[in-house]
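User: structure tokens for this one?
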Amino acid sequence: MNNPADRLVDLLDLEQIELNIFRGRSPQESLQRVFGGQVAGQALVAAGRTTEGERPVHSLHAYFLRPGRPGVPIVYQVERVRDGRSFTTRRVTAVQQGRTIFNLTASFHQPEEGAFDHQLPPRITAPDPESLPTVAQEITEHLGELPEQLERMARRQPFDIRYVDRLRWTPEEIKDAEPRSAVWMRAVSPLGDDPLVHTCALTYASDMTLLDAVRIPVEPLWGPRNFDMASLDHAMWFHRPFRADEWFLYDQESPIATGGRGLARGRIYDIEGRLLVSVVQEGLFRSYGERHMDGRPSTGT
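Assistant:
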């Protein structure tokens, strides 16, 4: 299976091993920890597999408790908290090697006509995504060639990402930069027609660039990094139906970073400017030289 989007769909296709218990693969990657978007996406699949009828997810709230180990399966245990007339609630606990690494609460809502219908307009007017270079093209333009490790990552990347603002590479470019970022994204190939797959794929993608907004005033987004970062929690509200294999604009900002933590907010729009999803995430940021009280290096949380 060489297509990255097909691999993502396969990654989200969990194995049911008992009632309310599912097992997900965790690919053996060179990363220090399992990608948080993968765990969130798989947990949402597990929650969705236990619901009945046409009730799409309307919100999720999650905590990343421990770093997951690449290459080790993750078991998802679902608690059926509530099955109401309009809303369904599920709580999911992700366990790896006997330890809880993640938990998620998701709420599903039967679509209905609302008393109000409005949204604020998008903050920015972004150029057509097809007119912007890919991340690989920007890096190649700056470095002259794409480093081997990044080339391998690009081949495995299930989403095409185009930064609305060109990547910054020098201290002069970073100076006085606002903590904001915006990207166009879409899956690199069609994902099929299951709405749950598109929701979970976008959940996966929502963790890919959101903390960029925290980093932008500090250092270039690509290249050597002087600190370790990890997602702490993640919340999403799904407002309208969408397809993750069609272009969507992810507008991101960081209202504050202090005390070792940075908060980021994201708004996801379709190409017509309709607000599809709202996202909030907090991340942990530690210098590589910082150590815990017992002398251990500060990796993970």
